[in-house]
Design goal:
By secondary structure, the chain is α/β, with parallel strands linked by helices. It has 8 helices and 7 strands, in the order H-H-H-E-H-E-H-E-H-E-H-E-H-E-E. The chain has a 7-stranded mixed beta sheet with strand order 3-2-1-4-5-7-6, sandwiched between helices. Helix 2 packs antiparallel against helix 5 and helix 4 runs parallel beside helix 5.
């Protein structure tokens, strides 16, 4: 059941486009973990961050069913481009159908396979303006080090799920691999002089990281 705070925030934020309403429904019907979907409020924030920053080249690590990539694409200009990475090829048909419904297919290039392997194939000279990380939590520290050289100076990294249901600040911190990796990611980013960062308590935690 939706919490009263979440309901209030959603109802007082801009409504999302019809293709996103459709995709959220399809994600709930066809996937085992529909909560992985970014959702309306976070999706609106991603779109707004693209618009405010003037981003034109975006890298997404973890596409899931394509909701967040649609949101970011709707914030792009006609010359924008998104490289989105996803390991689960069974989700491709739903992603592509959703992108078509939203009219953003030409802006998005899907790369299927393990993200850390795909990142090695991306050309280092075509720097990104924005990176959205929402994939395997165990690999967040590796994603961070891999994408920072691919991000232009002043560019933005947005990392999802960084509060991890409160586990990262629990006493004691749980010993599972996902929580341990997120704790290491959060501590690394906070101490890194190459960036400035702020953690937002939106959904399960959203960290904004700006490359100096």
């Amino acid at each position: 059941m939706e919490a009263l705070l979440d309901k209030y925030i959603r109802e007082h934020s801009s409504p999302v486009a019809e293709p996103l309403v459709w995709l959220e429904k399809q994600t709930n019907i066809h996937t085992n973990y529909p909560r992985m979907l970014s959702g309306a409020v976070q999706g609106n924030l991603l779109k707004m961050l693209v618009q405010i920053s003037g981003a034109r080249r975006i890298l997404e690590i973890g596409a899931f069913t394509g909701y967040s990539s649609i949101c970011m694409a709707l914030g792009l200009g006609p010359q924008g481009h998104i490289d989105t990475l996803e390991i689960n090829d069974e989700l491709e048909p739903l992603m592509r159908q959703a992108w078509e419904r939203a009219g953003v297919s030409r802006l998005i290039e899907l790369h299927l396979g393990p993200a850390l392997e795909t990142l090695k194939t991306l050309p280092p000279h075509n720097l990104y303006d924005m990176v959205f990380i929402d994939a395997n939590k165990r690999e967040y520290p590796q994603y961070y080090e891999a994408v920072l050289p691919l991000l232009r100076q002043g560019g933005l990294i947005v990392a999802d799920d960084t509060l991890w249901d409160g586990k990262v600040y629990a006493k004691p911190v749980p010993a599972d691999a996902q929580t341990a990796a997120l704790v290491r990611f959060n501590e690394t980013v906070a101490a890194d002089p190459r960036v400035e960062t702020v953690v937002l308590p939106l959904r399960d935690g959203l960290t904004l990281i700006r490359k100096r």
